[in-house]
Specification:
Layout lengths: L5 H4 L19 E2 L8 E3 L2 E13 L9 E7 L6 E2 L4 E4 L3 E8 L5 E6 L12 E6 L4 E7 L4 E8 L3 H6 L6 E7 L10 E9 L1 H5 L15 E5 L9 E5 L4 E7 L5 E5 L4 E7 L3 H4 L6 E2 L1 E4 L4 E6 L5 E7 L26 E7 L14 E10 L13 E8 L2 E3 L9 E4 L4 E7 L8 E3 L16 E2 L2 E2 L8 E6 L5 E6 L4 H7 L2 E7 L9 E8 L9 E3 L8 E3 L5 E8 L7 E5 L16 E7 L2 E2 L8 E2 L1 E3 L5 E6 L5 E8 L7 E9 L1
Parallel strand pairs: 1-5, 3-7, 6-12, 13-16, 15-23, 24-28, 27-34, 35-38, 37-46
Antiparallel strand pairs: 2-3, 3-4, 7-10, 8-9, 8-11, 11-12, 13-14, 16-21, 17-20, 17-22, 18-19, 18-21, 22-23, 24-25, 25-26, 28-32, 29-33, 30-31, 33-34, 35-36, 38-44, 39-43, 39-45, 40-41, 40-42, 40-44, 45-46
């Protein structure tokens, strides 16, 4: 939330009705989820928790502390997230919760942990009166990642599905490990401030984005204060990522694919197909979690972050002093610093193959000036060997590269503001060109932002064919909406673009109004796409929108599009081919109804072979009731 109320600027606390934290309150500490809570007695893990008011400095020690509800173990500091619970399958967990708050507290543990239903409402719970202690006992039956949490009566607690910071991780291992577990546990939290909380009602959240703010943390910290993860080339990293929030978070890894090993949570069946899929971006729905594995084979600095750009946008409190225009990142970001193996030689200088220029320009068409919230059109122009490819209004042209062919891309900035380019999904050989100003690279050799009238050269060799994208990685909400993004298609040598390939690139609307929340290929009202009977069409689908982070795309033969939809029995059949530029295994390439959730930062490839002449529509809808139609593309089959 970039806009900030005057109450937030004055340092009002994070819980409704609270004041600036008294000096006597215990101070909340960030929790790295490495120290285990509780004591094991006779096969029972006994975990004692105190729920109490605490002082939280959300952006560093120099900030005014704010009062918020948090969990602690007796005699220990309160933590964000709460004390870490880890045990082995077959253990019984006994929570003893002391409610030191002035309101009744409801403590929850998901029923799925002991083999119960996997639903958002399937919870074991206990209500604890103010000043009282009560217990909740559960069996650790199914290995996985779970969340305990607690709520209080105010509406903001129901909105956030917890009160203040009252949530923590539970990990159930399949067998007892010796020594330190070879994994890390990251808990995502999203906490409303007091102004936001004061405007939450039983009917919903504040109607405007400029009322209060939401604070985004991973293990209790926001970028750039989040923990730096260190690794060495060749290491195998096992991570558990838990979403202890009411919002969705598409988690994106720069430079590498990661394997999604398992999912736990109320929407696991919808979020992921069979375990073992390799991705660069994976959606985490509210209160869900994933276990993931990846191995860096190149040194340098790399990012793992939520690709929902409003979760990365600083405001006047979280912005760094040297970032007056709030262009840098904050929030849900982790930096990974990968060192070379001892004795490894530095990589050989890049071999220059193709030379391309990408020129960032801005303009505003007369039609756009009628919308007061509209952004100026920004886009890249691509030049190569005297050939110039212009971008459309608010959208940049497709960049076509060849697998195994080195490319040198000079990015020239003709804007009046800085920019950068991230090569999303591409396994670039040198992190220095990855596109994150001030971080990409290693040591003191860090990629700069591309200042106005300046340029930057990115050199890499695409190692695989597939569907990728490029986009600005500075002030993303503004520059991506304005058009500094486009499709990046890598083809095999000797393969030319086909007339049967079609790009559907979802992006946020430049108009900034609810009537047109999305554009496809820069258009709020896209033109008809022509398909051919009996000819396989490759559909390449991208999402870099800044709102509606996980819409449903589908292709239907209905006679017309309904504004709202509960069920569509006229879906055509397509075959999934690739996810995030990586080919799917043969077993996953099975014909299925043409309906797919596409979160921000994901790309999907599908093959569709029309069998008869007629009309169809590519539709993009809200993911959930009333399944509002956001945008559509007419399809004509000839």
């Amino acid at each position: 939330m970039r806009p900030l109320s005057v109450f937030a600027l004055l340092g009002i606390s994070l819980t409704s009705g609270a004041t600036v934290a008294p000096a006597t309150l215990p101070v909340v500490q960030p929790n790295s989820n490495t120290a285990r809570a509780g004591i094991v007695r006779d096969g029972v893990l006994e975990v004692a928790l105190d729920a109490r008011e605490a002082a939280w400095r959300i952006n560093g020690a120099g900030r005014t502390p704010m009062t918020i509800d948090a969990f602690s173990e007796p005699g220990k500091p309160p933590l964000i997230p709460g004390p870490f619970v880890r045990t082995v399958r077959g253990t019984r967990i006994r929570f003893s919760v002391h409610n030191a708050l002035p309101l009744p507290l409801t403590f929850f543990v998901p029923a799925a942990i002991h083999g119960g239903p996997v639903r958002p409402d399937a919870m074991d719970s206990v209500v604890i009166a103010p000043g009282a202690v009560d217990t909740l006992s559960t069996a650790a039956g199914d290995p996985g990642n779970y969340l305990y949490r607690a709520t209080t009566p105010p509406a903001v607690s129901k909105f956030a599905r917890m009160a203040g910071l009252l949530a923590g991780a539970i990990v159930v291992d399949s067998a007892e490990s010796t020594g330190t577990p070879n994994d890390r546990v990251f808990v995502i939290m999203e906490t409303p401030d007091s102004m936001f909380a004061a405007h939450v009602t039983p009917a919903g959240r504040p109607p405007a984005d400029d009322i209060g703010r939401l604070i985004y943390t991973i293990d209790g910290r926001s970028w750039p204060e989040t923990e730096r993860i260190t690794a060495t080339v060749g290491d195998t990293l096992h991570w558990r990522v838990l979403n202890a929030s009411h919002d969705v978070h598409p988690m994106h890894l720069h430079g590498f694919y990661y394997r999604v090993d398992s999912f736990t949570g109320p929407t696991a069946a919808e979020d992921q197909r069979p375990p073992g899929r390799f991705v660069v971006t994976q959606l985490l729905s509210p209160l869900s979690s994933m276990s993931m594995t990846w191995s860096p084979d190149r040194p340098g600095n790399w990012l793992f972050h939520c690709h929902f750009s409003v979760h990365l946008t600083p405001d006047s409190i979280s912005a760094a002093p040297n970032d007056p225009h709030h262009r840098d990142m904050s929030g849900l970001v982790i930096g990974v610093e990968v060192a070379p193996r001892p004795g490894d030689r530095p990589p050989a200088p890049a071999v220059t193959g193709r030379r391309i220029r990408m020129i960032a320009i801005a303009d505003t068409s007369p039609a756009e000036k009628q919308f007061p919230k509209a952004l100026p059109t920004m886009h890249f122009v691509i030049e190569e060997n005297g050939r110039r490819i212009e971008g459309g209004p608010g959208f940049s042209p497709e960049l076509d590269l060849t697998r195994g062919v080195p490319v040198s891309i000079t990015i020239v900035n003709h804007l009046d503001e800085p920019t950068s380019i991230h090569w999303h999904g591409i396994e670039v050989q040198d992190s220095y060109v990855d596109g994150v100003p001030g971080f990409s690279g290693a040591g003191t050799h860090l990629e700069p932002e591309i200042a106005p009238a300046d340029s930057f050269v990115a050199q890499f060799t695409p190692p695989r064919s597939g569907t990728f994208m490029y986009h600005a990685h500075i002030d993303e909400v503004r520059e991506e909406r304005a058009g500094l993004l486009g499709a990046l298609i890598v083809r095999d040598p000797g393969t030319a673009p086909s007339p049967d390939e079609h790009v559907f690139f979802l992006k946020g609307s430049r108009r900034g109004d609810a009537a047109y929340p999305l554009e496809i290929n820069g258009e709020p009202n896209p033109d008809t796409v022509v398909l051919r009977v009996g000819r396989p069409a490759r559909l390449r689908i991208f999402n870099v929108s800044w709102t509606n982070p996980a819409p449903i795309v589908s292709i239907t033969e209905r006679s017309d599009s309904a504004l709202t939809e509960l069920r569509d029995t006229s879906l055509v059949v397509w075959t999934p081919v690739a996810k995030d530029g990586r080919d799917l295994p043969a077993a996953a390439r099975m014909p299925e109804p043409a309906r797919q959730q596409v979160s921000i930062g994901e790309t999907y490839d599908f093959d569709l072979t029309p069998t008869r002449r007629g009309t169809m529509r590519f539709e993009v809808r809200q993911n959930g009731p009333p399944h509002r139609l956001f945008i559509r593309v007419p399809l004509r089959v000839e």
